[in-house]
Amino acid sequence: MPQAGPMAQSPFLGKRIGITGARGALGAALARCFRSAGAHVVGFTHGSIPPEQADGPHRWVSWNCGDEASLDADLEELDVLVLNHGINPQGGQSPQVINQALEINTLSSWRLMQRFEAISRASPQADPREVWINTSEAEIQPAVSPVYELTKRMLGQLVSIRGAVLDATGREALILRKLVLGPFRSSLNPIGVMGADFVATQVLRQASWGFRLVIVTPNPLTYLLMPLTELGRRAYSRILSRPDP
Questions:
Q1: Residue 186 has pLDDT above 80, yes or no
Q2: Cys-Cys with 135: which of 48, 156, 225, 236 at CB 3.0–4.6 Å?
Q3: Which residues are part of the catalytic machinery?
């Protein structure tokens, strides 16, 4: 009897995947991995629509931070939304830089999370939708960029709080996965020690195993500290949580 190929066994076969920051090194690598797994990929970008590529997203959507509501129709079509966009201001710490980084790295992802959760609740599926949030290792480790660390830490805490207090209906409709990634090579970090394709492969592998906290880094301390940090945040949020009015 012929054996089923890897594509037929992929948990992402036929899934509709949306990736923000899809023009960056990791976004492009994730698009390649999802396409290889048989998924239909939609790339969300702040820039111009790039030429079609055989291993890139099947479709592109242009958007701007602050205009997340315009994406509702596109979000409704997705099974998985990967929030991967962001900027790294390096040593920039002026009020203007902080405002821009907060808007792009933190608030836009938070608003997209809320919109996707609302869509998931309003239109539940047999398999829950998923949102994957790339907070990066900067959530708990220095990244030689104070503002980047601040914005990623804030996003990570928001995700932890939401995951801790999500009610039963929300948990049935939406799965939250946090991506905590170490330094990989990109235009923002040309000396990263990992390749983007390696990181993307590991992300999909851990997600396919059912991990809600996906960690890919050469730093062994992160594998110890991040789960403990996440556990502490969630316990703290649940203890102090009050029912929604």
A1: no
A2: 156
A3: 148
